[in-house]
């Protein structure tokens, strides 16, 4: 008889209530794949876009690409991993479940110094922070960076990594509690959203920032563009407040030869070498105590909908995880 396990399944797009807990068959690893028992699932904003129809997915749908756990079976041809190994991934499938599948080339070995719940909090957001500051725009020591949602999952990790690089970091947050967290992560200046572009100009003696990292989107895009120095770059990497409407390219001219890019993690994990480089750097930084992943909230797997509501309702700080 096929073994059963619990998983979150949505039959159609909609609000957080479409995420229901079901019994489903434990998946079987195909050639080159690993089956792992999920210890913790990383919840990410993209799953809210997939759930509510902003991004297209096939239903019935089990969300979740980020998780950590223990390998329990390997498919044909798997040589790099064995049963009992601790792994994490940012590119799994259907990870809102007790068991999930990942291709071996997308599995990341977890160092023994890193607990599995922390390992689940890292791959997607920390590798995002890594590519944003190393590859989309290579931040140099002494440069000034604007980073929105400074107390969020990506925000806290990217702030620490930018400070280790020697950059000056200006963040935005919505509450006093988030301001405190952003400061502890190393932010030099922490602003509220209202009037942030004028405040950034003042803080930079009228010059503007070298790069603005904007994962908030609709509500902040115009201010981010207005915060750049001549030839500065706006990196629009998400839309927590909604998607940005079409842009008149002439604004890049009048703003001072500006750059805008809209990156996504998949384009920065193009091959096993690139994936291994980013993963090794972030896991080593955690193992050596140079980078701290803050788990702001843990929800039981069955409460995935509540986790989405908390994330979309701006109630979370750092990482949100689900525990099967
Ligand atoms: P966060 O933990 O940062 O949560 C989102 C934060 O955005 C909130 O906590 C809130 O912080 C802020 N925010 C501002 N306005 C709103 C609003 N109207 N509704 C909800 N939140 C708002 O999430 P993540 O770290 O998981 O992701 C941050 C962004 O990065 C997302 O847009 C996500 O899609 C994107 N992302 C992109 C990737 C890529 O490769 N392109 C990869 C990973 C994430 P506050 O209350 O302080 O304003």
TrEMBL record:
The keyword Oxidoreductase applies. Residues 14-322 form the Enoyl reductase (ER) domain. Signal peptide: none annotated. SUPFAM superfamilies: GroES-like (SSF50129), NAD(P)-binding Rossmann-fold domains (SSF51735). It comes from Arthrobacter silviterrae. InterPro entries: ADH-like_C, ADH-like_N, ER, GroES-like_sf, NAD(P)-bd_dom_sf, QOR-like, Quin_OxRdtase/zeta-crystal_CS. Keywords: NADP, Oxidoreductase. The keyword Membrane does not apply. This is Quinone oxidoreductase.
